[in-house]
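Fold this sequence, please.
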Amino acid sequence: MVNTSTGFTESTKWNCLNQGGATFGPQIFLRMGEVYLNRAEANAKLGNMTKARADLKAVHVRAGLPGSDIDNLADNAVLAAVLKERRLELAFEGQNSFDYFRNGLPMTRTAADFNGTTLTVQPTDATVVFPTPIF
């Protein structure tokens, strides 16, 4: 939240820097599109396809795409559509591998070694190591 007396964005949840009585915390931003897609993924995994489609459709339509694309999805294709929409919505933010591995899917990269060879990393591979968050 913005402190009206200082004009700074402040948080008292994580105390990182205490300067002149003002507490500043790390700024963690979540876009509404990401929030909708997180909920759509959770609902798809729980089998609530109507709710998953509604959240997916909200993001899809906001991007200027037709809602009929989502309405016509079969139930077994909803999770794949959510993951594809996440790839598009969060492009270039480094979230893609987390999405694959969290869902037990292999991550395939074409020309990963600059000679045209396809690299596939399985979610159970020992090289898949998630970094520890630093707060």
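The chain is about 40% helix and 10% strand. Confidence is low (pLDDT under 50) at residues 13-18.
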